Amino acid sequence: TVERIFEGGDVEVRFVVAGRPGSKLFTFSPGRLSHAFAVGDYVYWVGSDQDLPAGSLGTVERIFEKGDVEARFVVAGRAESKLFTFSPDRLCHALFMVGDTVHWKGADQDLPAG
């Protein structure tokens, strides 16, 4: 669970590790964590093309049964917003919030994968 977000963007997370008593705090850069998308989340697409340039901010509007995510993006210099659908691995959250449940995308001796 996210406990704190530092000014530089790093995220302090409390993990309970299976088979170990208690919990432990770890600090990660946001790129080393993931969490599920929900309607209303702010997201960035991890790619870039002529329709959606890098850095465009979107808002999740729908999550399909098979997991694809539909988000509305406002593109700089354009009057209208546009809906795009991506697989979840092509999007990243724009922010973490205290209380979010996250998963570490790595593994080491202190904290196993997952």
Polypeptide structure, described:
The chain is an all-beta fold and about 110 residues long. Helices cover about 0% and strands about 40% of the residues. It has strands at about 1-5, 10-15, 25-30, 35, 40-45, 55-65, 70-75, 80-85, 90-95, 105. The protein has a five-stranded antiparallel β-sheet, with no helix packed on it. A hairpin with a 5-residue loop joins strand 1 (about 1-5) and strand 2. It starts with a strand and ends in a 10-residue tail after the last strand. The mean pLDDT is about 80.
Keywords:
five-stranded antiparallel β-sheet, mainly beta, 114 residues, 10 strands, 39% strand, elongated, three-stranded antiparallel β-sheet
Write the layout of secondary structure elements.
Elements: E1 2-5, E2 11-15, E3 24-28, E4 33-34, E5 42-45, E6 57-63, E7 69-74, E8 81-86, E9 91-93, E10 103-104
Antiparallel strand pairs: 1-2, 2-3, 4-10, 5-6, 5-9, 6-7, 7-8
The percent of residues in helical segments reads under 10%
Strand content: 35-45%
Structural class: mainly beta
Number of helices, where a helix is a run of at least 4 consecutive DSSP H or I residues: 0
Strand order of the largest sheet: 8-7-6-5-9
Number of strands: 10
Radius of gyration: 16 Å
Q: End-to-end distance, in Å?
A: 13 Å
- Most strands sheet: 5 strands, antiparallel
How would you spell out the order of helices and strands?
Answer: EEEEEEEEEE
Q: Averaged pLDDT, please?
A: 82
Question: What gross morphology would you assign?
Answer: elongated
Uncertain parts: none
